[in-house]
Amino acid sequence: MYKNVEKFFAIYDADPALQERLCQAEAAYPGSLEIREAVAEHVLLPVAAELGLPFSLLDLKVYETKKKARDHQDVALTEEELAQPLEEHHYWLLEHGWEFAKPEEGSCGD
What we know:
Structural class: mainly alpha
Distance between the termini: 30 Å
Shape: globular
Order of helices and strands: HHHHH
Number of helices: 5
Largest sheet: none
Helix content: 55-70%
Strand content: under 5%
Number of strands: 0
Mean pLDDT: 76
């Protein structure tokens, strides 16, 4: 399903109407916006499912973690690449204090 996240955000990045729809849905969300997993679960995931691209919160977490790692790699850029404006990225979880952490080994009743 991780591929569905990539496909969904490719559509999202290219579709201002979809961006506005999600912005309005987030603004109308009745719960706490600080609880980002709940916001994503009740705002983002249903829209993705409607588009035929269902994915889970775990898929979203993995996608955002990998994307952030790629975006922050130390790579040599050409002069042409340096002259281009930086891409803006929107993270549903990472921009709001969520960080991916592996569970402690042995914490599941061992």
